[in-house]
Amino acid sequence: MPTTLHGSGPVHYRKEGAGPGLVMVHGTGGDAVSNYAHLVPGLADVRTVITPDYAGSGLTADPGGDLTLDLLAGQVAAAFEEPSDLVGFSLGAAVAAKVAAERPELVRRLVLIAGWTHLADSRLELGLRTWARLAATDPESFAAYGPLMAFGPEFVSAAGADTLMVGEPPKGTLRQIELDLRVDLRELLPKITAPTLVVGSTRDYLIPVEHARALHAALPGSEYAELDSGHVVLHERPAEITALIRDFIGVRDLIGSGTS
C-alpha cells in the first residue's frame, strides 16, 4: 500500500486505474477499503483512483493532539499526485471542501456526498452526540446504533443485524465523531471555485437531507442530486452514486475534450 509523507506522519492510500486523478475521501469510522473498495472498479477505467486513509482510519495512525479539518485536509492533499477530481463522503465531504477552498490548484471538480455546513440544528447535534457517547461507553449499543442511523429500513432488514454489527470500527472513530460536531464550513464555502456536485440522501437519519440542500444553496452554481437512500449511500445505492460521479467528473470530461 503506497504512503505519502505529511507533517503528522505517513499517510497510507490505495491507488488503482489509469488516467487523470480522482481522490476519494472516506467518512467517519470508515476507511479507504470500507467506503470505496467496491466503487473503485466502476471508476478506475476513466481515472487513477486514489483513496487515502486519514488520521485514525485504516493504516494511517492518529498522531494525537487536536484532530482538526486542517490536519485531515493536509493529509488528503499530500496524497494528490497531480490536479485531480475530488470526492468526499460525510466527514470526508467536509475535508474535501476544506481542500478545495484552500488548495484550489489541486481540485478540478468536486463531489460532496452526505455533507453539511455546520451544526445547524438540534436533530443533527443529538444524533452525533448520541453516537459519540455510545462509542465512548457502550460498544454493543454503538454497533447497533450505527446501522440504524446509517442505512434505510429496507437495507437494514435485508442485510440482517448479524451482518451489520460485525467488525470493530477504526480506533479513531470517537475522535472523528467529535470533529463532526465541530465542523463549520461557512467561511470556507465562498472560497470554493471548482465545479461542484452536491449529493443528498432522502432517508438520511444521521445527516438529514436538509443539510445537503443547505450545502448546495451555500455553493452558488453547484449542481445537486438526491438519491432515495440512507446516509451510507455508497453501499445502499452503489450503482447510482457511481453513475453520478462518472457523469460529473468522467464521461462529460471525456466527451468535452476527448482527453481528460
Automatic annotation (TrEMBL):
Highest rank taxon of the organism: Bacteria
InterPro entries per UniProt: AB_hydrolase_1, AB_hydrolase_fold, AB_hydrolase_sf
GO cellular component, one term: membrane
Any one Gene Ontology molecular-function term assigned to this protein's record: catalytic activity
Cited Pfam families: Abhydrolase_6
Domain AB hydrolase-1 positions: 22-242
PANTHER family the record matches: CIS-3-ALKYL-4-ALKYLOXETAN-2-ONE DECARBOXYLASE, MONOACYLGLYCEROL LIPASE
Protein name as catalogued: Pimeloyl-ACP methyl ester carboxylesterase
Species: Nonomuraea solani
